# Entry
Amino acid sequence: MTMRIAAVFGSPRRSGNSETLAETFLQEAERLGAEVERFHLSGMSYQGCIACYACKKKLEQCALDDDLTPVLKSVYEADALLVATPVYFFDMPSQLKAFVDRWYSFFKPRFHETHDISRLPEGKDVIFVVSQRAPENVFIDFIQRYDLMFRLFGFKPMHLVRGCDLGDSRSAASKRPDLLEKARKAAGRVMAGEPADAGS
# Structure
């Protein structure tokens, strides 16, 4: 069966380091037989969660109808999710955070009272592609926080493709063969159904 990957690019600028690493992963996954649906949040028109609670009281999905609607649908239907993000000011860019906030609609009603909390089918792969100017020992809490979030929604332990010490150049990742190879190897693991590399 063909693996379907929903790829969400969160950087406000195109062709940057997170996109380079993500595309290296995705092109290898496509070479191995995956079908990929790409979403570049930059340029889309949408807003974050407005706390209307319609998804808990009368709907099974987010009540807002905007450019994120097909993105959320693709995340639900895909076998794997790739999220590509730079680290901006200790976190992901606001464009991507608004998308993540809309995941509130993936929580079931009364989710805080039960262990069965997610509307997403359990056992999806998630690939977290992160680029940062800072060295590897910085922003570890950022990685851990989103790993916890993915697990809460039923994803498998994340496949992490992380580029550090990339400076200000948006082409830095393209000049790092070690990072590009790391992205390709992660794609091979996902496509082979192997668990995430504990050393990533």
The first strand starts at residue 4 and ends at 9.
